[in-house]
Amino acid sequence: MKKVIPMSPKLLPFDYKNDPDYIYQIKWDGVRMLTYKENGKITLINKYGKDKTKQFPELKKLEILKANFVLDGEIMVIEGTKNSFSKILKRNNTSDIKKINFYVHNIPITYSVFDILCFNGRWIMDQPIEYRQNLLNNFLESNSLIHLCQNYNEGVELFQTTKKLGLEGIIAKKKGSKYTQGKKSFDWIKYKHRQIIEGYIGGLLLERGIIKSLAIGIKESDEFIYIGNVGTGLSEEYKKRILKKGVELVIADSPFKNFNDKKHIWLLPRVKCFIEFMEWTDDYTLRSPVLKVIQEDDYVT
């Protein structure tokens, strides 16, 4: 069975209009994953073409289905009403079998399926989206592991609801459209809310002795995961306060599990901050981050 390069949406600002030519779906902040079933075996391939079957063994339960197929969707770890991005990264980035077995029972996933591309050996990407979704809804049922993505006609209401719930945003999909693999198309349009994330300052990037940006991480259990640098919103007052505080926090090596270089001055990640951003990039860092608040009084030990 050939491997598919996932279709991608275009990003546009929301115009607060309901377009009758589009259906609307919730945009979950998960890990994109294609699921292949062939010869009785399930294989999971991410959007970079890497095999992730080992990381998510729960989805082997789909092997009981008789048909061969290719599904497109996002894997999430739901907490409350939204995806925990730090926990899905932990699941996605782990290759240790003992940890994977532990996570299966302690960090359960949900696979949100929004498209079917092949069914019983027949590729249906050229079929209209209504045909593909009708087939998908007749073939699969939502349960504790599988979530079938719902369609909505009222994009404005859905956009406002997702904002209230703290979700990533919505996707508009053109009625009658084909699945155009490997391309960004206006047949799919994503409208996203700017989000706020809590992080910790783990490093400084200097330019001529002045802070250019801060290396930010999120805390997951006892580990800190690097999610990018932020310079926008870093006022002169903040720079002075961080330099003063940073003197007592300097360490020799990066505090982040997944990032290190020789350009930064590394700090113990003790000072909390809040970052506003547009979305997660393909390499799981923040896109268009803006520093909003530094909480020196919330000092982590």
From TrEMBL:
One Pfam family linked to the record: DNA_ligase_A_M
Reactions this protein catalyses: ATP + (deoxyribonucleotide)n-3'-hydroxyl + 5'-phospho-(deoxyribonucleotide)m = (deoxyribonucleotide)n+m + AMP + diphosphate
EC number per UniProt: 6.5.1.1
Keyword Phosphoprotein: no
Keyword vocabulary terms for this entry: Ligase
ATP-dependent DNA ligase family profile domain ranges (all copies): 102-233
One MF term in the entry's GO annotations: DNA ligase (ATP) activity
Any one GO biological process: DNA repair
PANTHER family, per database record: DNA LIGASE 1 (PTHR45674:SF4), DNA LIGASE 1/3 FAMILY MEMBER (PTHR45674)
Family of this protein: Belongs to the ATP-dependent DNA ligase family.
Name of the protein in question: DNA ligase (ATP)
